Amino acid sequence: MPMLLTSLACSQEEDALSTGLEGFYIHPKASSFTDLKLQSPLPEWFVKEYPERKMMGDQYLQILGNISIVGESADQIDDMKKIAHALLGFVDSNEDGKADDPELWNKYIPTLKGAEGRLVLYVTEEKQGYKRFDSIGPSLYDQAWSSNRDGEKLHTKIIMEELFHFLQNVIWSRYDQKSFGMHQKTPSIVAEAAHRAVRDRYYIYDEDCISSESCLLPEFFFCVMTDVLPGWPKEGAPSISEWTLKGQPQAIEKNFSKMLAMVKKLQRQGRMPLKWPSP
């Protein structure tokens, strides 16, 4: 038995190294969701559904039955796989090979199709690669990254943060409006907490962001979750000048007890991740 375990560990390590994912989070049961095989060029049905997609690139990966990950070129393959593994880490937080929230991922997400409905994640070489499409409507993508960010390779924290924003902004805010909804007459639980955090200066950001719930809510909630969910690297973002309660779990619990009770309830129901998908 020990020899079998050792062989399996070596096999997983070799697979990680051979696919350019060394040092990154690898979902241990990714094969339950996808074979991670990319297609090139983009699938005909995907382009036919929204012809403007043909301008995006030539690498395609589909996971979770209905999530499209598009890469500008073969240079984005490693980053596409990293994004896929990280997303699986959020979707299957207990790593048992099943979506923690089957109602969301097995029933709701598959209904999102077409030019406006399908969920698309996009990776380009440079930021301007995806920004050049921002004037096109409906949008070609729901979340985007660049492999080259300010002269550095795309790293784990950026992938995790932007995926978390994607989950909250694009999915949770529609699927669970009472908890995450934006621009509502009756504020959602997160909206109520975010506005109070700005008022009490626990969360300090630029005026353009805090005046818009579509920016404020995901940015604020992300900051809170870096302290609440285990696995987030403590150094770096968010800064204590932005999130003044950073590293103070008791103060966070005291000031945002209603929101944290919501998080714990959703975690028990499998509707929120238990941890950050970090290596």
The percentage of residues in β strands lies in 5-15%
Mean pLDDT: 92
SSE string:
HHEEHHHEHEEEHHHHHHH
Helix content: 40-55%
Order of strands, main sheet, comes to: 1-2-3-4
The general outline is: globular
Number of helices: 13
Supply Rg.
19 Å
- Structural category is alpha/beta
Catalogue the unreliable spans: 1-18
Give the biggest beta sheet: 4 strands, mixed
How many β strands by DSSP?
6
Total number of domains = 2
Concise overview:
This protein has helices at residues 2-18, 44-49, 77-91, 102-108, 114-117, 127-131, 156-175, 177-180, 189-199, 207-210, 213-228, 249-255, 257-268, and strands spanning 59-63, 67-71, 119-124, 143-146, 148-149, 152-153.
Describe this structure in words.
By secondary structure, the chain is of the alpha/beta class. The chain folds into 2 domains: 2-154, no CATH class; 175-268, no CATH class. Helices cover 46% and strands 9% of the residues. It contains 13 helices and 6 strands. The chain has helices at 2-18, 44-49, 77-91, 102-108, 114-117, 127-131, 156-175, 177-180, 189-199, 207-210, 213-228, 249-255, 257-268, and strands at 59-63, 67-71, 119-124, 143-146, 148-149, 152-153. The strands form 2 sheets. A 4-stranded mixed beta sheet has the order 1-2-3-4. A two-stranded antiparallel sheet has the order 5-6. α3 packs across α7 (156-175) and α9 crosses α11. The protein is globular, with a radius of gyration of 19 Å. The two termini are 26 Å apart.
